Predict the structure of AraC family transcriptional regulator.
Amino acid sequence: MQSKVEYSSSNIAKLEEHLSSSYSPVEIRPLGSYENFGFNGMVNTIGHVTLELFTAVGSYEIKPIAPMDATMFVIVMDHQIAINSKISDLRLGRGMATVYHHPVDVKLQDGSQQLSLIVPDNVLQSRLCHLLDGRAGRPLRFDNVALPANALKQFAAAVQSLPGSPIVQLAEGAPGQSSGLEDFIVDSLILNFPNNNSGFLSNAPQLSPRQVKRALEFIHSAPHRHISAVTLADVSGVSTRALQYAFKKATGRTISEYQTALRLEMAGKEILKSAHRSIEDIARSLGFSSPSNFSQVFKKTYGVSPTKFREMHF
């Protein structure tokens, strides 16, 4: 069933009450002064899966009090959002995607638009068992990473086409058909977004986790360096091609993409931590070729320039 949803209030407590009753208990904190806080968009229900396309009204932080028994796949359609967990802090700009479960908090920017799939945990585990031919597999845990939506092959494009799609409306109107579409969506999420069962779902040979771990440790020991796949393969004691394949399976990113993402994550933290340190100095210390190159790559990931990013947080 598809429905339009719109809610806004000058009283942040009213939004907190609304979200707590609709999902699970949360605390809401305003991030700046706005006339109203809320959201507008549409919701589709496909079996047990909920598809939401929302635009934030006002900037605010959502802090869950009690966990939801569900996992959320998110694509940022416009502006940016920040998702903080016990494992890492992710800032997603336009065109970035992630999966999260029990976040510490989620920060929405005024005008940010996100497309979300909310899937109950028991549905995910049931479909994983089906994909593994009846084997239970490990409790499903998606990698805590942000990926370009276009890196997820056709899955992200398919999800983005769902709001208002005649296929969804046909499935909702035909008894028993919504479950088939639901299974297809959930299966595609499990197969396309990196998780701790990706190796079991692939027929390709897997390297020992410790060999990928050696490469990761080497990268993290010198994040400012541009370390080639050949060097990392030598360190790990495997062939370059084998490491490249296993690395992508384990992290969801190529070796080069991972190194860039690591440097950008460190840069974002340093920009906020050292308010008086110049952007140029931060870029140089993390191995970026020039301030302009750093600014371009940073904006592609975070949605804003490094200077604007600093201004937004001070």
Remarks:
- The mean pLDDT is 87.
- The two ends are 43 Å apart (CA to CA).
- Residues 209-252 form one domain.
